[in-house]
Structures are given as structure tokens and as C-alpha cells.
Write a structure and sequence with these properties.
79 residues; alpha+beta; two-stranded antiparallel ribbon; 52% helix; 20% strand
């Protein structure tokens, strides 16, 4: 049984080197809506750390969150 989903954000920006962070999200006893909300929260946490030092931090943050959520949902669907 799947108990946790691993969110691994690997974000490469043109202005900086690639960085990677991860957050584990528990799936036990949660609805799809709760899981999606937790994935979004985790993506925000990961991306907040990964965009530090970016010149255009708000744009980079938004792109990071969107990409991280998409990749995580695809990985979750593949399990």
C-alpha cells in the first residue's frame, strides 16, 4: 500500500545551477483533495528554498510550484 509520496523537485534555472529538495507527504486516510492540497503545500515549501537568490524570484517561484505539482501528480498517477 502506498503510504507516502515523495516530492522531489529538481529545478534548473538559466541563471543558477540545478538544485534539489524533497518533502514526504503522507497519503494514509486522505481524500484526493487533501492529497492535492498537501502536494501544493509541499511544493511551496520546496520551491521557497530553491528560488532563494533568484533575480526574478516571484516568477521563478510560480514556475517551480507549477512544475513540481505537475511532476508529482504524474508520478502519483503512475503508481
Amino acid at each position: 500500500m502506498i503510504r507516502t509520496a515523495l516530492i522531489a523537485a529538481v529545478v534548473a534555472f538559466a541563471a543558477s545551477s540545478a538544485s534539489a529538495s524533497e518533502v514526504r507527504v503522507s497519503l494514509v486516510g486522505k481524500s484526493a483533495e487533501q492529497i492535492n492540497a498537501d502536494i501544493l503545500d509541499a511544493a511551496r515549501t520546496v520551491c521557497a528554498k530553491d528560488v532563494i537568490g533568484e533575480t526574478m524570484i516571484l516568477g521563478a517561484y510560480g514556475r517551480c510550484v507549477k512544475a513540481t505539482v505537475q511532476v508529482t501528480q504524474q508520478k502519483l498517477a503512475a503508481l
